[in-house]
Write a structure and sequence with these properties.
By secondary structure, the chain is an alpha/beta fold. The chain contains 18 helices and 16 strands. The radius of gyration is 24 Å and the shape is elongated. Bound molecules: uridine-5'-diphosphate-xylopyranose and adenosine-5'-diphosphate.
């Protein structure tokens, strides 16, 4: 090894194929913590690579700018030259996108592995030495096996060791999750060369992660652990959301219930905030994957069990819109409704699987005028709603979004929405003014006092109607 990059001799060349939400931050932190490794990130998307090389990174992630600035051009490089990067690499992380299949067998459930397979073919084509291939994107269990087969039949006499090293990054805290992970999972084949490859990957993380947090398992356990971790997190959200519906029928308050239930140390308080439903690129996709796998292994009861987590999530979004229609006298025709937030959660511009998409579409179907405001997600919102028809506005200023609106529907829990002057907002709205708080973010008694009819989630509403 010991290839030269700039004037420094590096111990190893690491490559990541796919410069997205996962690949970019992960490799930037690895470069920061491992100055002895040369790290390259490639992508077929030229615009994305240009952005990684610019002052405005393609993703908004707190702390990421500082990390990238510290190492870019030293031991972190972004490029579109995939063949050259493959040739030079000792270890290749693959973090290309694996969306849910939209066609053919397993449509709507299974993962679409076309990018993964194409990547494997590229690795074979451009390699002239043996390498370790690290599966970073979330993939269905046993993908590594399929990839191992493709790579084994390379016809060049090369050896590729496959490692599963799933990411557990949550957007908005990705850099912190990378710097201080709860655990790092490294799965390998249980052969001597498999274990050796796993040690090489564990060595990377050992630069900054304590040894007891680096867990080594077999390949399948590692892949499945990722899906199950996300399924459990999503299941907690669906559990509390299902109870929020019950609260609205009784005098119970979902906040009290989350607190009381979460105080049991066996349960714990996190991921028990009722809301409009989970979004993000992982939860839905991973659970559907789990469901698909269970079904294809002849376990329909297991599949049905996990499918309900997604079903409750849909239900939560549906009933949020139904409530708006019902409370606003069964018609939204021509009424302006301001959506406060569009990102799938606060502190990110990402809108993938955001409940905002469903809500906006449904409101437009009801012929409402929809005015969307979000501090970071307006560009994505525009793309998500392209060609949707109806009347949609995008406003950077929340006060403008609320002007002439009869209702506010709060979709994303941005702290900035808490700081607004709701007296001023109330003044410019059509009366009676409604506020549907999909995240239980705002001060409901105060809003009621100002004059709003307030509909929290899983709590009694506060209205001025007799
Ligand atoms: C998630 C996992 O947390 C992460 O480990 C995995 O690698 C990728 O998927 P992410 O999608 O970035 O990360 O967001 P997360 O913070 O987990 O939130 C997911 C969704 O659940 C958001 O829409 C959020 O608003 C919602 N949520 C979360 C709730 O509705 N209530 C909660 O209590 C927590
Ligand atoms: P994730 O959230 O998993 O990181 P993203 O969609 O943000 O997913 O990123 C995946 C990236 O992988 C995209 O930028 C896409 O252009 C890139 N990609 C997909 N296929 C290939 C390929 N064959 N070679 C290089 N990059 C690829």
């Amino acid at each position: 090894m010991g290839r030269k990059g700039e004037n420094v001799a590096f111990k190893k060349n690491l490559l990541c194929i796919g410069a997205g939400y996962v690949g970019g931050p992960t490799m930037a932190v690895i470069a920061l913590k491992c100055p002895d490794y040369r790290v390259t990130v490639v992508d077929v998307n030229e615009e994305r690579i240009d952005q990684w090389n610019s002052d405005r990174l393609p993703i908004f992630e707190p702390g990421l700018d500082d990390v990238v600035r510290a190492v870019r051009g030293k031991n972190l490089f972004f490029s579109t030259d995939v063949p050259a990067a493959i040739r030079a690499a000792d270890i290749i992380f693959v973090s290309v996108n694996t969306p849910t299949k939209t066609f053919g067998e397993g449509a709507g459930m299974a993962s679409d592995l076309q990018h993964w397979e194409k990547t494997a073919q590229q690795i074979i084509e451009h390699s002239d030495g043996s390498k370790i291939i690290v599966e970073k994107s979330t993939v269905p269990v046993r993908t590594a096996e399929a990839m191992e087969r493709i790579l084994r039949m390379n016809g060049k006499g090369l050896r590729f060791e496959i490692i599963s090293n799933p990411e557990f990054l949550a957007e908005g805290t990705a850099v912190r999750n990378l710097l201080e992970p709860d655990r790092v999972l490294v799965g390998s084949l249980e052969t001597e060369s498999g274990r050796k490859a796993a040690r090489e990957i564990a060595d990377i993380y050992a630069h900054w992660v304590p040894a007891d947090k680096i867990i080594t398992t077999n390949l399948w356990s590692s892949e499945l652990s990722k899906l199950v971790a996300n399924a459990f997190l999503a299941q907690r959200i669906s559990s509390i959301n299902s109870i929020s519906a019950l609260c609205e029928k009784t005098d119970a308050d979902i906040g009290d219930i989350s607190f009381a239930v979460g105080s049991d140390s066996r349960i714990g308080p996190r991921f028990l905030a009722a809301g409009i439903g989970f979004g993000g690129s992982c939860f839905r996709k991973d659970i559907l994957n789990l469901v698909y796998i269970a079904r294809s292994y002849g376990l329909p009861d297991v599949a049905d069990y996990w499918e309900m987590v997604v079903r409750i999530n849909d239900f939560q979004q549906e009933r949020f819109v139904q409530r708006i229609v019902h409370e606003m006298f069964q018609t939204l025709v021509g009424k302006k409704i301001a959506l406060f937030g569009f990102a799938f959660k606060a502190n990110t511009g990402d809108t993938r699987e955001s409940p905002g998409i469903y809500v906006a579409r449904k409101l437009i179907e009801e012929r409402a005028v929809v005015s969307i405001t979000d501090p970071w997600a307006l560009d994505n919102a525009r793309r998500d709603l392209e060609g949707i028809g109806g009347r949609v506005e995008f406003q950077t200023d929340p006060y403008r979004a609320a002007e002439g609106a009869q209702a506010i529907a709060l979709i994303t829990g941005w702290d900035a929405f808490r700081q607004l002057d709701y007296e001023k907002i109330f003044r410019v709205m059509v009366k009676p003014a409604f506020l549907f708080d999909g995240r239980n973010l705002l001060d409901h008694p105060r809003l009621f006092q100002i004059g709003f009819n307030v509909y929290p989630l899983g709590k009694p509403s506060r209205t001025h109607f007799a």
